[in-house]
Amino acid sequence: DVEENGRLVEVFDFAKGGFCKAPWRDIQVGSLVRVTATDEDGCSPMIPADLALLACNEGVAFIETANLDGETNLKLREPLPETQMELAPPLSDPCSDDDEEHLQGEYHGGGDLRMDKVQSLQLGISCNLPDALIYDFNARL
Question: What share of the chain is helix, strand, coil (3-state, %, to 5)?
Answer without folding.
Answer: 20, 15, 65
